[in-house]
Write a structure and sequence with these properties.
The complex is a heterodimer of chains A (121) and B (172). Chain A is mostly helical. Chain A has helices spanning 2-32, 50-64, 69-80, 95-120. Chain A has two domains: 2-89, Helicase, Ruva Protein, domain 3 (Orthogonal Bundle); 90-121. Helix content of chain A is 69%, strand content 0%. Chain B is built from five helices and seven strands. Chain B has helices at 5-26, 77-90, 106-116, 130-134, 161-171, and strands at 45-48, 54-56, 66-72, 95-102, 122-126, 142-147, 150-156. Classes of the chains: A mainly alpha (121), B alpha/beta (172).
Chain lengths: 121, 172
């Protein structure tokens, strides 16, 4: 019986630590994708500013309350605008951002094609 | 004469890229979110500095009244600078100033108000800075003018002559 109890306790303990690790991973993932608005060039995860620390506490609380990644992002976008996300959504304000690399890549390809391949032939 | 399109095309691209970056140079580095204007005020619970009583934000604000939410801390130097303007504003009858004490020690906050006089109707305590996030603020000092439970103006940084004048114009 004692062994059974021990196994039961061990099982619960293992599950709890797995849950905690999952929450921690989610916390890290979210904070790495958030821009620290008062310390340029740093994410919330990297920053130790007052603002970043408060956001970290808030996210921890929201994860504990069972909110998912999207809900937390939506909440913060509502407060600070989409600028707070490092990975902005595709919208009328961000289409240049998303499409420009593709366009530049195509132009680059075209330049190489014109200069080297056509000339060779 | 054969026109060389390709170099012209490259130059145009170069000029466009140059113009984009040049325009970017002139933009302000300070990011000011404008998403909060005309939005409903957030709901939160906080303790008061003096009585340590829990207050629900729903019971704090009334319709058809002006409120100025001021986020401050005793350790914040610009908060000292704006304090005179807050005192001036507190003499106006049609606006109530509500302070949110940001990441501060209660004792220091009380001493600050004792020394410089309190312009606040009530001071709420925000120990971990999460209430400031509810307001969409990211530091101290920051102020929000409210009317009909909606944010109508946001002032980032300390109040000054100009912002005080703007507030007075709005609450008339």
């Amino acid at each position: 019986m004692k062994i059974l109890k021990f196994i039961f306790a061990f099982f619960i303990f293992m599950n709890m630590s797995a849950l905690n690790a999952q929450d921690k991973n989610l916390h890290t993932k979210i904070t790495k994708n958030l821009r620290c608005l008062i310390c340029q060039g740093q994410s919330i995860y990297d920053s130790d500013s007052e603002f970043a620390n408060s956001v970290k506490i808030l996210i921890e609380r929201k994860i504990d309350n069972g909110e998912n990644e999207k809900e937390i992002y939506d909440y913060l976008i509502g407060k600070y605008g989409e600028w707070i996300l490092y990975d902005p959504k595709f919208s009328k304000n961000t289409y240049i951002l998303w499409l420009l690399p593709v366009v530049i890549f195509l132009i680059g390809g075209f330049v190489i094609f014109r200069l080297f391949i056509i000339k060779k032939n | 004469m054969k026109v060389k399109f390709f170099p012209i095309f490259l130059i145009i691209i170069f000029v466009i890229v140059f113009l984009i970056f040049y325009k970017g140079l002139q933009n302000s580095n300070i990011y000011t979110p404008n998403t909060l204007i005309k939005k409903n005020i957030p709901s939160f619970e906080a303790k008061t500095l003096r009585t340590n009583k829990k207050i629900d934000s729903k019971n704090l604000f009334k319709e058809n009244e002006f409120y100025l939410i001021n986020i401050w801390a005793s350790w914040c130097i610009p908060c000292r600078d704006e304090h005179d303007f807050l005192i001036k504003l507190s003499n106006q009858k049609n606006v109530k100033i509500i302070g949110i004490n940001y990441k501060d020690k209660n004792e220091n906050a009380k001493n600050f108000l004792k020394e410089l006089k309190s312009p606040y109707e009530v001071v709420l305590v925000d120990k971990d800075g999460t209430i400031a996030i509810e307001w969409g603020a990211y530091g101290v000092p920051e102020s929000f003018l409210l009317y009909n439970k909606k944010i109508i103006k946001k002032i980032i940084g300390p109040l000054n002559k100009k912002s005080l004048f703007e507030i007075e114009k709005l609450i008339k």
